[in-house]
Design brief:
Helix content: 55-70%
Largest sheet: 2 strands, antiparallel
Strand order of the largest sheet: 1-4
Number of helices: 27
Radius of gyration: 27 Å
Distance between the termini: 54 Å
Strand content: 5-15%
Structural class: mainly alpha
């Protein structure tokens, strides 16, 4: 990795110094913990108490009120200690079984099931029935709008676009009603700004710029609230006018709209910040405005970042916006990105996500370089990453992260070449990675089985023969490779090492058959060892064949065999569905140089799709 000291130009050196300037850490700095405490109090006042009053005559009221209190907190609070969501789900189902038909309880129970099982077909009906009942019922409007936004995300996954538009209109109306009822009056306006502008709640605003703008232009809200929301809308309009492509692809009309809207955003957001400098949202949005060239000459992106974190030290949207502005495409550099990441790490505020943002910056760097190897392969980076994970593992505020943190140690130890550390963590995990690792594995296009296999092989008795087999396979000496893989398999003692060896043995066997000419059946039989699961839930049929449990989700599985450059492919598939679905099968052929740029793989695809109504 390039370091700040490697750079020659004074201008770039000054930029790196600015990006890596210490982030001011005050012992009494406001964080998400303080905001969460105030937010939980607001949820109690504006959601739980009105709900309790409305259902007080019901026989199940005594159980429903604490269920709503805890589940709303689980859904709405940012970066919180974990809640017992399986326990909450059991309580919600018990309420439903006891005859509770309240739409908020119905929604929260369905939402918990979705968060735990990730199966939208099982819960979409309950989401829809809850939305239909909110208008006629007693559900507090702040709860209704939150439930509505989360339901639109479910509709997105279910490919139900018309329903999203209809529900979006309801959400605007519920927001209007909540404002009119005084749910966001006075100091409580900060919760409206949060619930409008912070992910995932901002998705509704981004889809409904004109409708939300019309609401807030007339709504009875504090000026700083109005300016924060309308300023954000102008930022979104600016980028919509410009488009997301490179500068060379933007039309003259696009530039005109971009500057016009971004100029309006600058005025609105600056005024909002001046009125409430102790809130981070407007200052955070000004980072993007400044990145777009509409900031004041003496106010850099770093100036607005410092203003945002002075209001709330761990306001992560500000960190994300500033890190984005430091990318080379916006005039930054890899060195500035690294300097900022190290400044986050240096805060040592392990009770917040700020030091952990160092890992986000490493991911950004890997994406910019289209390869994680030079980032995590750097000895200094590898040492800092593992030291961070070890510290987090022992921190008293992070006991609930134990399995996830060990999983990160295993993965990042492997990425950095510290297989001993990786194996130690895997032994503590019983070699079962936490699902929270899935996003990073997907981002880096990594197969967890490859990682587990390499770690297991590092000190396995079959290692030497396996390496000889790899050498022979690379030289296309497939008979020798098969012999070495078989010898390694006979000596192997670890399940994951065995799977890795067996996968390579199966690939070599199929490649040898392909060399002889004629059709070769490459479908797996009972094992996916010779395949790499990249996305979705897959299994190998015992009699041969791939099975994807899709539920309209994406799936990607890659054969590890190397067929050469002259071949044909044929096959068949069928779709089985309980209800409506939209599924297809595609053949993807990879080309390019994935070993040189692992995050920049190129694929040629041919897809056959179909929509099924019920079971075929």
């Amino acid at each position: 990795m390039p370091k700040p000291a490697d750079m020659g130009s004074a201008r770039k050196s000054a930029a790196v110094t600015r990006a890596g300037a210490p982030i001011q850490v005050k012992p009494d700095a406001r964080t998400w913990r303080e905001f969460n405490k105030a937010h939980a109090d607001w949820i109690e006042r504006r959601v739980v108490r009105p709900f309790a009053e409305a259902i007080k005559a019901e026989p199940w009221a005594g159980d429903a009120v604490p269920f709503v209190r805890e589940t709303m907190a689980s859904i709405m609070l940012v970066w919180k200690e974990t809640y017992d969501e399986p326990g909450l789900l059991a309580r919600g189902r018990a309420l439903r079984a006891a005859g509770c038909e309240d739409p908020l309880v119905r929604f929260l129970t369905a939402r918990l099931a979705y968060r735990i099982d990730d199966k939208w077909p099982d819960v979409i009906e309950d989401h829809e029935k809850a939305m239909a009942a909110f208008d006629a019922g007693h559900t507090p409007r702040p709860a209704a709008r939150v439930a509505g936004i989360l339901t639109t995300s479910l509709y997105t996954r279910a490919h139900r676009k018309p329903k999203i538009g209809a529900l979006d209109k309801k959400i605007v109306e519920w927001t209007r009603q909540a404002i009119g009822a005084g749910d966001y009056a006075g100091e409580d306006g900060k919760f409206l700004v949060h619930d409008m502008l912070v992910p995932p709640w901002d998705e509704h605003l981004e889809r409904n710029l004109d409708a939300v703008a019309a609401l807030f232009e007339k709504a009875d809200v504090p000026e700083w609230v109005r300016g924060s929301v309308l300023g954000t809308i102008e930022v979104e309009r600016a980028w919509k006018a410009r488009g997301t492509g490179w500068a060379s692809s933007v039309t003259e009309e696009g530039w005109k709209g971009f500057k016009e809207h971004l100029g309006k955003a600058a005025g609105l957001l600056r005024r909002a910040w001046e009125l409430r400098p102790n809130r981070p949202e407007a200052a955070s949005k000004m980072i993007t405005v400044t990145m777009g060239g509409l900031g004041a000459p003496d106010e850099t992106e770093r100036v607005w970042f410092d203003r945002a974190v002075a209001a709330q030290f761990d306001f992560l949207p500000a960190y994300r916006s500033y890190a984005w502005a430091l990318r080379p495409r916006w005039g930054g550099s890899l060195e500035e990105m690294m300097a900022f990441g190290e400044a986050c790490l240096a805060t040592e505020r392990y009770d917040t996500q700020v030091p952990v943002f160092y890992l986000d910056v490493l991911t950004d760097l890997s994406q910019e370089m289209k390869d994680w190897h030079p980032v995590y392969g750097d000895a200094d980076v590898a040492r800092k990453v593992l030291a961070l994970h070890r510290t987090l593992l022992e921190h008293p505020t992070r006991k609930h992260e134990f399995r996830a943190r060990l999983s990160h140690i295993a993965l990042d130890g492997w990425l950095g070449g510290n297989l001993t550390e990786a194996r130690r963590a895997l032994d503590q995990l019983d070699w079962k990675l936490d699902p929270l690792l899935d996003k990073k594995l997907e981002t880096f296009k990594l197969d967890p089985e490859v990682m587990l296999g390499e770690v297991a092989l590092a000190n396995d008795p079959g290692k030497a023969d396996f390496e000889l087999g790899e050498k022979a396979a690379a030289e296309n000496q497939l008979s020798e490779a098969l012999n070495r893989y078989q010898a390694a398999l006979e000596k192997c003692r670890n399940e994951h090492a065995r799977r890795a060896i067996h996968g390579r043995l199966e690939c070599a066997r199929l490649e040898q058959l392909l060399e002889r000419g004629g059709w070769v059946d490459i479908t797996p039989k009972g094992s996916l060892d010779a395949w790499s699961v990249r996305e979705g839930k897959w299994e190998a049929a015992a009699e041969g064949g791939l099975i994807n449990h899709g539920d309209d989700g994406h799936g990607l599985i890659i054969s590890k065999i190397r067929p050469g450059t002259n071949f044909e492919i044929r096959g068949h598939y069928r779709v089985e569905a309980k209800g409506d679905c939209c599924q297809g099968l595609g053949i993807a052929l990879g080309f390019g140089h994935p070993a040189e740029q692992p995050l920049e793989q190129k694929w040629f695809t041919c897809i056959s799709g179909r929509i099924n109504r019920g079971t075929p």
